[in-house]
Amino acid sequence: MQTVDDAEQQVEFDRKIAEEQKIEPTDWMPDDYRKNLVRQMSQHAHSEVIGMQPEGNWITRAPTLRRKAVLLAKVQDEAGHGLYLYSATETLGTSRSEMIEALQTRKAKYASIFNYPTLTWADVGAIGWLVDGAAIVNQISLQRTSYGPYSRAMIRICKEESFHQRQGYEIMYSLAKGSPEQKQMAQDAMNRFWWPSLMMFGPHDSDSAHSGRSMKWKIKRQSNDDLRQKFIDQTVPQIEVLGLEMPDPEIKWNEERGHYDSGEIDWEEFYQVINGSGPCNHQRLKHHINAHEKGEWVREAVRAYRVKQQEKSAENAA
Ligand SMILES: [Fe+2]
Ligand SMILES: [Fe+2]
C-alpha cells in the first residue's frame, strides 16, 4: 500500500520520467521499477561475462598473432562490460555475490546466443559481426534509458562494441574473399549465427512479458521488433558486400514498408535455449562456477587487505 509520502514521491518520479530526466541511485523509485532494472541489468551483465566463453575458446587457436592479440583485447573488453554493469546494478541495492548466485543457480538468465558452440574460426568472425552488431543496435537505444548509471555504462560500452563489430566483419571479409573453403566456412558460420542473433532482440512485442512496463518507464526505448528490423536492415547490405548467400531465403526488400521482409524465427528453439536446453547451457555454467571457485583466493586476499586497511586507519585515528 502506498503512503501519502510515497504518493508524492511517485508524482515526482513520474515527472522526471516524463521530462526525460535520469533517475539516480539515491532517488526514490517504485519497487517494481527497481526490480525490473535489477533483472534486466544483471541479465545484461551475465551475458557480457558468459559471452567471453565461446570466443575465449579460440584465443589459443587464432590463426595469426595479430588476430590473437585483437581477440584477446575483445574478450577482455567483455569482462570490463560485465564489471561496469555489475557495478551499475549494485547501485540498486543488490550485491555482486547475490547476482552471481542467481546466475549459477539458474534463477537469472543471460543471452541465449552464448549457448551455441563456436565450431570454427569463422564463428569468431560471425559473433563479432552479428552478435556484437545486434548488441550495438540494442545498446545504442539503451543509452537513453531512464536509469542514470545504466545509461552511462551503455555510452561507454557502445564505443567498444563498434570495434568488436568491425573486427568480426574484417574476419568475415577476409574469409569470404579467400579460398572456396574459407568462403564456405564464412557462409556456414553466418548461417548458424543468423537466427540466434535475431533471437537476441527477444520475443515479438505482442509476446514480450516485460516490454509494456519497461517502455512506460523508459527503461526500454524501442520495441524488440523495431530493433530487430533495424538490425536486419543494416546487416543485409553487409551480407551482399561479403558476397555470401542470404541465410534466410525469405529476405526481400519491401519497397512499400521501406524495410527488408524476412522469415519467422523458430520460437520453440528460442524458448528451449533460454530455459536451459541449448547445446552449451550446462557447459557454460559449469565453466563459470569452476572459474568462480578458482578465484576464491583473490576475493579472500581482497577481504584480508580491507581488514588490514581498516586496522591501519583505526591505529592512525587513535
Ligand atoms: Fe560487450
Ligand atoms: Fe562486444
Automatic annotation (TrEMBL):
Gene Ontology CC annotation, any one: cytosol
Single GO molecular function: phenylacetyl-CoA 1,2-epoxidase activity
Entry-linked Pfam families: PaaA_PaaC
Parts forming coiled coils: none
One GO BP annotation of this record: phenylacetate catabolic process
EC number per UniProt: 1.14.13.149
Key words, A-Z: Oxidoreductase
Name of the featured protein: 1,2-phenylacetyl-CoA epoxidase subunit A
Organism of provenance: Aliikangiella coralliicola
